[in-house]
Sequence to fold (578 residues):
Amino acid sequence: MIASKDESNLDANVEYYQERHEDLEKDHDYLIALAGNPNTGKSTVFNTLTGLHQHVGNWPGKTVTRAEGSFTYLEKRYKIIDIPGTYSLLATATDEEIARNFILFSRPDVVVVVVDSTTLVRNLHLVFQVLEISNNVVICLNLLDEAARKGISIDSEQLSQELGVPVVPAVANVGEGMDDLVKAIAGVASGTIFTNPRHFILKTEILNVIDDITPYVKKVVGNIPNIRWITRRLLEGDSKIRRSLESGELTSLVNINQNTSNIVKPKEDELRELFNRVEIAATPIRETLHDHIASSIYADAEIIASKTVLRKEVSKENLDTKIDRILTSRIIGFPIMFALLLSVFWITIAGANVPSQLLADILFWFGDQLTLLFKLFGAPQWLEGLLIHRTYRGIAWVVAVMLPPMAIFFPLFTILEDLGYLPRVAFNIDRFFQWAGAHGKQAITMCMGFGCNAVGVISCRSINSPRERLIASANRVRYRKDICLKQYACRRACTVR
Amino acid sequence: MDIEFKTLTELQIGESGKVVRLMVQGPTRRRLFDLGLILGTEVKAVLKSPLGTPIAYEIRGSILALRPGDSSKIVVTTESP
Fold:
């Protein structure tokens, strides 16, 4: 995990969000944030809702992707921002910082949390943290098909009652539940759906400390919503919240909602008193505060899960476990792996030969006809050279050489991926990569590089550790320089000489 | 009844334990919390890689693979009759 050392950027970020808030006002009616754990199908939901009306860029000052899109419903325009996937909002890593700051400072009208139905308890960890910051939350219970496959069914009505916010069941990659999701978003945004979010319960000792400190926070910022959450963050030593208190940004958030964005700096002595008291109160409990909060969240999450999740008895599970045991066994794990991957490569290379030749024959034949046509019309030599020899032949050659292998390799590889086999590859081979300081997932990125190196590099984003990710992507660059079979074709494709 | 303390690395395949100590601090500790591995969690070792590491554990209904660098710092109690 990356601890954000870039404190100086915080003020810039907050200002950015506040400016954008005014900007954004002009081109939409409601602002939606799309949050959730990684790999919950968030992007699928985003793409389904926005279609082609989206724009991808970066968060200011960071290298994290930001996707922004829009849709219209019942004559209202909704702008939706895809927040980085995170497991929590503690803001100790860049992704979390971005997610938390957006929800807190940009004040979206609705926060949609996309949840993986197969791991509800773990997802509730993030959900509870979101509910602490925002009342206008809609839960999208995604991947229900996966859950059904594992014998898991979830009572979304009951879950909605437990959490106090709308819960929309969905299978985003076939578009199921998306209409209901839009309706729920519209309802919460306009206030026609009333939410009463559940807050997890902390131990009494901690509640007492929060009770003691909150009045001093109130003196500094006034009576803003979720003030007890601010107190808790101060006790946890959240330096970003502390700075936004000092600069008056936090107070101005209330004012934004009331349409007067004055930044009023708090009184010095009140601030000092607050921070002193926080220091005194927090020191004895700081070590264990986070532990308590995590265990409170999970305790509550387990209770909710016990009331809403039904697991059918484990017959299917046995089959999956048996297969896994074979795939990762000491004796045949590796042979199976080599057999599968080698056959994918063999089918690609052998299978591409005939189509490549065929395509080359057809396209070049057509190119010859074009040349004849040009000659017939008496077109000048330079025109024929530019259009046919350079442009057409270049494209034809690239299509003939690259299209068949890629058209075979990627579907085959995707089948392996859909079967869920690829994580087993990473699991089996990780030890070798550990020795090199890298990650088992690099084996997969290397495989994908055989199809197309650009795809291989992009797939490196699935590796969490920054160092391991760097090694994996640098390896792809090296590969392209030294051994890639298609690099000549790729270069030719890109530069029409 | 025999109560033993073991690190997660020492757990046999098929054996379960309850987390009693996490001997990590900072970002690693937070990451474990994020993934549901807190004090009192039930963990079951389910799969071992052919080369010995990593080992896959079942935690709160999902599977997590941990390297010994991490699993050796998590202490669990096992109860064997």
In short: Chain A has 21 helices and nine strands. Chain A touches chain B at residues 1, 3, 87-88, 90, 92-93, 118-122, 125, 290-291, 294-295, 298, 311, 321, 324-325, 328-331, 333-334, 427-432, 434, 440 (CB under 8 Å). Confidence is low (pLDDT under 50) at residues 1-22 of chain A. The longest strand of chain A covers residues 65-73.
